[in-house]
Amino acid sequence: MENTITITKDIVYKDDLKLDIYSGKNTKGAIIDIHGGGWFHGDKMKDEDLATRLAQEGYFVIVPNYRLTPKGTFPAGREDILASLEWLKKSDYVFDRDKIAAWGTSAGGNISVEVALITGIPAISWSGIIDLEGFILDTDGKASEKKDDLDFANISSASINQGGRNDAFLRWCIYSLIGNDRSLLKEATPLTRVSPKSGPIYMANSMNEFVPADGALKLQRTLLDVGVPTTVQLVTGTLHAKGYMADVIDASLSFLDTFLNNRSIK
Fold first, then answer.
1. CA dihedral 68, 72, 76, 77 (to 10 degrees)
2. What domains appear along the chain, each with residue ranges and CATH number?
3. Contact 210, 161 (CB under 8 A)
4. Is residue 50 helix, strand or coil?
5. What is the pLDDT at residue 146?
6. Is residue 238 scored above 70 in pLDDT?
């Protein structure tokens, strides 16, 4: 059945931060679609493809910009997305306010996990960077920090970082997030915010990509210990986030169908 999508761009939701809206039949609730980019690059236009697909599935979708490093160090991006959630709940748009979820890829997957842990709404995370502290400690002395020399502004999300481990680049991203202050590593690691009130989380990860899959597995175990439902889907190969979209989109949508129809937003 056809679902015609209307796109409304550049709505201010906080200070000078803007979001785009993808709206169709809006029968399934709402999704905050959080773009990736290592916390340092990208904007809401990166997720036009995913947001359109989610709107076609019947969701009311917002795609917010959030502050990026070096100015937007932790927890700026997380706080901006939480502000977009409050904006969404108070807006005049028509959708089921008992059904709101977060969906993010890469750095956006990290933030979607944070939102679920803090607010209790369900989340989807593709290649979310979860165990920041553990990764830095595990790679100390084995990799330096080095920004990738890719032309990020002119490469599609599905083409970035698809070649496997890149510890130096991931270390650089994490250090940029914490403003090179190692004392913030534990605080910036989502694992520290798990509670019985956290929302259910679906996480996908390639087994040999540049974001280690063990972060998702650690979070799954921690959520299990407090009785919060979670699913981890591991994909063979080295693809990152949207690179494996075709392999995980159906399971991600099914996860939301299950948990949005069996709970109410806090």
1. 10
2. 6-260 (3.40.50.1820)
3. yes
4. helix
5. 85
6. yes
**In terms of Cα–Cα distance, which of 256, 264, 262, 263 is closest to 32?**
256
Secondary structure of 58-74 in HEC code, one letter for each residue = CCEEEEECCCCCCCCCC
**Peptide bond just before 229 cis, omega within 30 deg:** no
The model's pLDDT over 1-42, given as tens digits with 9 standing for 90+, comes to 477 999 999 999 999 999 999 999 999 999 999 999 999 999
The predicted model gives 86-115 an average pLDDT of: 97
Name the DSSP class of 262: S
Nearest to 51 by CA among 197, 227, 242: 242
